[in-house]
Amino acid sequence: MTSEEPRPGEGVRTDPGAPSTTGATGSPGRVALAIVLYVGVRLLIVAVLTGVLVAVGLPLLVAMLVALVVALPLSVVLFRGLRARLNAEIDAATSARRERRERLRAELRGETGPDAGEGS
């Protein structure tokens, strides 16, 4: 694979305290922004292709269907960076959520964390 996309499992940090190499924070706002940006750009390419096909003389419905079919592989090639950013944000959010869940489970079991054991 010579693409810039992370391979499965590559974007996931195994150490929750390790700094992110991609700049992804996984905060809900950043994840939402990445999703809106990626979906918006994909819709924009469908709209542009539809406009071009209608200008060429195709009926609107046919132009929309052709644009949808053409936009899928085109967006895979053109928007590789956006998709990688979205994947990194989702991976960071999943990692943070997993860490919070494990901390909560440990707390419910009565286990103390490393910072809670200072008074012993």
Short overview:
The protein has 120 residues and is an all-alpha fold. It is built from 3 helices and no strands. 65% of the residues lie in helices and 0% in strands.
Question: How far apart are the termini?
Answer: 52 Å
Total number of helices: 3
- Secondary-structure-derived class: mainly alpha
Beta strand %: under 5%
Radius of gyration: 21 Å
- Runs in which pLDDT lies below 50 for 5 or more consecutive residues are 1-21
Mean pLDDT level? 79
Largest sheet at a glance? none
Shape annotation: rod-shaped
- DSSP E strands, number: 0
The helix/strand series, from N terminus to C terminus, equals HHH
Helix content: 55-70%
Produce the secondary structure layout.
Blueprint: H1 28-56, H2 60-78, H3 80-109
Helix pairs in contact: 1-2, 1-3
Description:
By secondary structure, this protein is an all-alpha fold. It has a domain of 81 residues. The chain contains three helices and no strands. Helix 1 packs across helix 2 and helix 1 packs antiparallel against helix 3. The radius of gyration is 21 Å and the shape is rod-shaped. The N terminus is likely disordered. Keywords: Membrane, Transmembrane, Transmembrane helix.
